[in-house]
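Dear Dr. H.,

I hope your travels went smoothly. While you were away I took the liberty of generating a structure for the chain from your last submission, since the lab meeting agenda had it listed for discussion. I wanted you to have the full record in hand beforehand rather than looking at slides cold. The sequence, exactly as received, is reproduced here:
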Amino acid sequence: LDWWKTLPQDRTDALRSGLEAAREAEVLAAWHAKAK
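The corresponding predicted structure, in token form, is as follows:
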């Protein structure tokens, strides 16, 4: 974590992992529908 704090803010702001919230909801809805 200390290393992460040494990076420029534009680098840390641009880096995000995972899905966008709307896409995540869409994928989960499809997954739950398929599981039934």
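Two observations you may find useful: The CA atoms of residues 23 and 29 lie 10 Å apart. The chain has a mean pLDDT of 84.

With kind regards,
E. W.
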